[in-house]
């Protein structure tokens, strides 16, 4: 069966409409950075999937000095986002009804950036996606890998 130009146009139009209605993409207008792996984007609470960052109140030590590693993770995220637009690809919801997503600035994965710089960990319980980034940070002693720290999931359990 061959489609004439009108029918072909209709089929393509319907496919494009379907694509745009089902594409789970969020572009930022209004952003609030909660911590290293959670943001509010246009009023929607988004948790970065596949990573875990230290909690805001979490500290680490380096040369017997207390470092606010949770705040450093948040500040690193603020710095990389700056005034750029964020593009997030939704992956579902977590048990707290937050949107799980991987978010990007200028095609750079914020999750990968945080892990590769040592201020987030590959959350192996949920994803294996960022393990190579974590191995890079660990072998180069970047971020928290240059400090004494407790993994965020352990810190939450103990505090």
CATH architecture: Beta Barrel
Largest sheet: 7 strands, mixed
CATH class, named: Mainly Beta
The residue fraction in helices comes out at 25-40%
Helix and strand sequence: HEEEEEEEHEEEHEHH
CATH topology (level 3) name: OB fold (Dihydrolipoamide Acetyltransferase, E2P)
Structure keywords:
5 helices; 159 residues; two-stranded antiparallel sheet; alpha+beta; OB fold (Dihydrolipoamide Acetyltransferase, E2P); single chain
Describe the structure.
This protein has 159 residues and is α+β, with helices and mostly antiparallel strands. It has helices at 5-22, 69-81, 110-116, 131-139, 152-158, and strands at 25-27, 31-35, 38-41, 44-48, 51-52, 60-62, 65-67, 87-93, 99-105, 108-109, 121-122. A hairpin with a 5-residue loop joins β8 (87-93) and β9 (99-105). The chain has a single domain (24-158), classed as OB fold (Dihydrolipoamide Acetyltransferase, E2P), CATH 2.40.50.90. α3 (110-116) packs parallel to α4. It contains five helices and eleven strands; from the N terminus they run αβββββββαβββαβαα. The model is unreliable at 15-28 (pLDDT under 50). The protein is 34% helix and 27% strand.
Briefly summarize what is shown.
With 159 residues, the protein is an alpha+beta fold.
Topology (elements, then pairings):
Blueprint: H1 5-22, E1 25-27, E2 31-35, E3 38-41, E4 44-48, E5 51-52, E6 60-62, E7 65-67, H2 69-81, E8 87-93, E9 99-105, E10 108-109, H3 110-116, E11 121-122, H4 131-139, H5 152-158
Parallel strand pairs: 4-9
Antiparallel strand pairs: 1-8, 2-3, 3-4, 5-11, 6-7, 8-9, 9-10
Helix pairs in contact: 3-4
